[in-house]
aldehyde dehydrogenase (NAD(+)) (Lentibacillus salinarum), 498 residues
Amino acid sequence: MAQSLLVTEKLNNFIDGEWVEENDSADVINPANGETVVKVPLSDSGAVNRAVEAAKTAQKEWALVPAPQRADVLFNVGQLMKERKERLSQLLTMENGKVLEEARGEVQEGIDMAFYMAGEGRRLFGHTTPAELPNKFSMSQRCPVGVVGIITPWNFPIAIATWKSFPAIVAGNAVIWKPATETPIMAYELSKIFEEAGLPKGILNVVYGKGSTVGDVMVHHDDIRVISFTGSNDTGRNIASECGKQLKKVSLEMGGKNAVIVMDDADLDLAVEGIIWSAYGTSGQRCTAASRVIVHEDVKKRLEERLLAEIEKLTIGDGLDESNKVGPIINKAALDKIEKYMQIGKEEGAKLMAGGYVLDEDKYANGHYFAPTLFTDCTADMRISQEEIFGPVVSLIPVKNFNEAIEVNNGVSYGLSSSIFTTDANRVFKAQRDLDTGIVYVNAGTTGAEIHLPFGGTKGTGNGHRDSGVQALDVFTEWKAVYIDYSGKLQRAQIDTE
Ligand code: UN1
């Protein structure tokens, strides 16, 4: 059914408003059933260079277009995405595997971002500030940086792209976008939408290909002034060091080891719902997914029993079948990585309570599926409690009290999202203050960030920048301080103020 939604068998790069063919390509595989969905171009450095040249020229004009008019394009984009929401969602499920309900949620996140950032076209606030000297006016304003590069992952192929490209475009930049090769269809669809929405040519350029070529050229290109990256820790760190050498601004979001804390006073039914949704939804393939449960020892047994009962109810399979709640794992390499952690967990002495294996019944034959897994009696320092597995795997860690729970939560190298279930108001306020993550939830799971708030984290999750929210504009703009002296004489700051 969804196959017929595709308009082409092979995607093309989108450079300077043209659909440009590349010779090399790779198959895009539906992780639910192993079928080839489409071919994705594997570009070389030439494509990036052409895109940057086009972007440089186009950006100069675009920066002069009043921001409310730039925003009109985003309003059109939001409207078109809204009209095509079902089509986009089905295509997203085909390339990424996430179940349709979640695909719809992700597309909605992109629609929300379009309208939110379009609104920024009428704000893009700077500041007026009193000057030190009489008859002098001072202000700071946001300016576009020029050509920016965005590198997006396969797990949220449309939402994350909107978090980055929409603020960049409304602020007056031109974008070079390298989508993940596993999930190129959302980039293709979004570029078509931008084209129809009236974006001038050269402002959004999509170059498909491997990170080792396309990404590498982007990172080293003198005319790309910003790199905004979401993806793996190793790649992000390499990008950061390469950008550092060139004094290029870089914004990184590189995952988490997110925990749900369940206190002895928690509403356990609610906690179970929150854990199941944020740990096993999207098969645990969210940066924000819960992969640790830190539980007060007095409620540990009851929580385990309820979790087990709910895990058994989870239906697993192709996301286009709406009776399934958990979809496939993106590819074999990701599946192998998850499987490797089963052995590690057992060797470390964790007790496997549920799952722990690859699903290999006939109906799963050509896809990649992993059983929702629960390890219990884990300690905070085990590798399964410390390392990002990026699959439907939870490590349950018992603790004795609230302070220990906070300490265990913070005792990992990541700091993206955390959550606490408690009915004690004092604990709520202490937790939101002390949990060392960029996102904190109270009485909800670790996933489900809204686009008008900053998205990102502390420590190994990133480098201090944020996606989405008004804060994303900081990545794609430079601050300019402007002083206008209308005194008619030379006034020297710091000297004539005495
Ligand atoms: C991600 O996994 O990188 O907060 C993005 C959430 C979603 C976005 C996740 N709104 O779970």
Remarks:
- Residues 360 and 462 are 36 Å apart (CA to CA).
